[in-house]
């Protein structure tokens, strides 16, 4: 077993090469992403993808505790709507190291006494960081329940298929030419219905089979309640008309990474979510609008007031309250996190 970062990425590249050999010369692009991110030596499996200030990317929960405080308010509102179920099951899907869970618990929502918060995370390395106040799980539950499923920046990380227009749609497969991983374009047996009939030569597009199935499965788990997906989204047509580097991105250490076929398992591979390929949501809003609806202004005003009261003898709590102002700016920024989409599927 190779040790160290280089050893692990060599092992991940070996995993991909073995899969390619086993498949007779090429694997579908989504299989490549699955191995690169979630295989035995994948980016997330080996503990990469630490969202946070010292990690590889900054998600809304990692901006600071304000996002979780707003989610705590939303959870209270949905709990009331559901008739105050006890237990009130809330699944945080793709929970990463549990930062959202920590912030929700710290905000002490009214529903806290009924709340059964379950952080579902594929990566054992990330699960190890989950707080003891939540139930940490490797997979979604199998039993139906009444409650809420939240997935912040999960769908953009699910493996996706990749298609290229070349006088007709071809599907991207990954092969190895002896030196490096290369793309092979293959005529698919069936062109996914979501793709337009014609596109500019060289157009690329993601096909989200895994994300669509995940949403269908999550919604079918709910007797009553809602699935709330927060992510960077666009649509199939937009992808075909924009440079692929805008919507298919790699990240490592807060920087854009290299080409998606290089540095296997050393970088995150992420894609905008084409909403038109998912089951139709009940509501769609921006993250900024969602946070306004659930009282971000009140929380910021509360923070400002608490800071002013404590300004002459500030303690850590007062500093945290003051930091709500900066956190709100980042969370509401319409050229950044504020422009993310909040997709909700409500089950009555
Ligand atoms: C971009 S991170 C987001 C983490 C966290 N939700 C946040 O907002 O900071 C995506 C996480 O989803 C996890 N993940 C990917 N596929 C998953 C699945 N099918 N079930 C559970 N977790 C998954 C990854 O391991 C990773 O930790």
What does this protein structure show overall?
This protein has 348 residues and is α/β, with parallel strands linked by helices. 35% of the residues lie in helices and 24% in strands. It has twelve helices and 17 strands. It has helices at residues 4-22, 29-38, 60-63, 66-81, 99-106, 124-127, 209-220, 236-241, 244-247, 287-293, 296-310, 316-332, and strands spanning 27-28, 88-93, 115-120, 135-137, 145-152, 161-165, 169-176, 181-186, 204-207, 222-231, 233-234, 248-252, 255-256, 268-271, 273-274, 283-286, 341-347. The chain has a seven-stranded mixed beta sheet with strand order 4-3-2-5-10-17-16. Helix 4 (66-81) packs across helix 5 and helix 11 (296-310) runs antiparallel to helix 12. The chain is globular and about 65 Å long. The protein starts with a helix and ends with a strand. The model has no long low-confidence stretch (mean pLDDT 94). The structure holds S-adenosylmethionine. The site of S-adenosylmethionine has 21 residues, from helix 3. S-adenosylmethionine (SAM) binds at residues 44, 49, 51, 59, 61-62, 93-96, 99, 120-123, 126, 152-154, 157-158.
């Amino acid at each position: 077993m190779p040790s160290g970062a280089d050893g692990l990425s060599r092992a991940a590249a070996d995993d991909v090469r073995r899969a390619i050999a086993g498949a007779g010369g090429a694997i579908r692009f989504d299989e490549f992403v699955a191995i690169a991110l979630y295989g035995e030596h994948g980016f997330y499996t080996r503990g990469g993808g630490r969202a946070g200030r010292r990690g590889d990317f900054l998600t809304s929960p990692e901006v600071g505790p304000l996002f979780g405080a707003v989610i705590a308010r939303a959870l209270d509102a949905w709990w009331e709507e559901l008739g105050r179920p006890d237990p009130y099951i809330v699944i945080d899907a793709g929970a990463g190291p549990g930062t959202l869970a920590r912030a929700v618990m710290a905000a002490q929502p009214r529903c806290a006494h009924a709340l059964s918060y379950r952080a579902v995370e594929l990566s054992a390395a990330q699960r190890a960081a989950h707080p003891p106040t939540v139930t940490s799980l490797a997979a979604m539950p199998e039993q139906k329940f009444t409650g809420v499923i939240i997935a912040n920046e999960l769908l953009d990380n699910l493996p996706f298929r990749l298609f290229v227009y070349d006088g007709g749609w071809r599907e991207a497969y990954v092969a190895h030419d002896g030196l490096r991983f290369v793309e092979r374009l293959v005529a698919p047996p069936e062109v996914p219905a979501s793709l337009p009939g014609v596109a500019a030569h060289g157009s690329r597009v993601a096909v989200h089979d895994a994300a669509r199935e995940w949403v269908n499965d999550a919604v079918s788990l709910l007797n009553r309640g809602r699935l709330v997906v927060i992510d960077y989204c666009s649509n199939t047509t937009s992808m075909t008309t924009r440079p692929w580097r805008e919507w298919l991105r790699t990240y490592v250490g807060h920087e854009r990474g290299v080409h998606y076929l290089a540095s296997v398992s050393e970088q995150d591979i992420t894609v905008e979510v084409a909403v038109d390929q998912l089951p139709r949501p009940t509501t769609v809003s921006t993250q900024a609008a969602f946070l306004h609806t659930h009282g971000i202004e009140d929380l910021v005003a509360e923070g400002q007031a608490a800071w002013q009261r404590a300004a002459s003898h500030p303690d850590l709590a007062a500093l945290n309250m003051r930091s709500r102002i900066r956190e709100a700016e980042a969370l509401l920024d319409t050229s950044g996190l504020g422009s993310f989409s909040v997709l909700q599927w409500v089950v009555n």
